[in-house]
Amino acid sequence: QVQLVESGGGSVQAGGSLRLSCAASGYTDSTYWMGWFRQASGKEREGVAAMSTRGRATHYAGSVKGRFTISQDNANNTLYLQMNNLKPEDTAIYYCAATSKLGPVLMAATYEYWGQGTQVTVSS
Length: 124
Hints:
Number of helices: 0
Structural class: mainly beta
Order of helices and strands: EEEEEEEEEEE
Number of strands: 11
């Protein structure tokens, strides 16, 4: 059973930066992708970024491309999301997710395991 614990959320002003971390345990060789999702109040959960655990392939939502960077530290089983030039519309609860299924990597339904989420609030 994969367990995921996010940290690093907080409140920043527009233009600021935050780095989210996701500590993973129960990680297996069959885990193919890890990703970050977010859910704003009253909206559906959306994929932000995803990364292959078997290489360095990455995918980003168009709204964050060039501002967010996903990375992983395999030695410490930790996934990161560096968020720069944050905008008020980035305000949401951010979730870390992992999956051993194959499917669209920015689609929530592809993922089997989820963290509890961390709040990111960006003020204008």
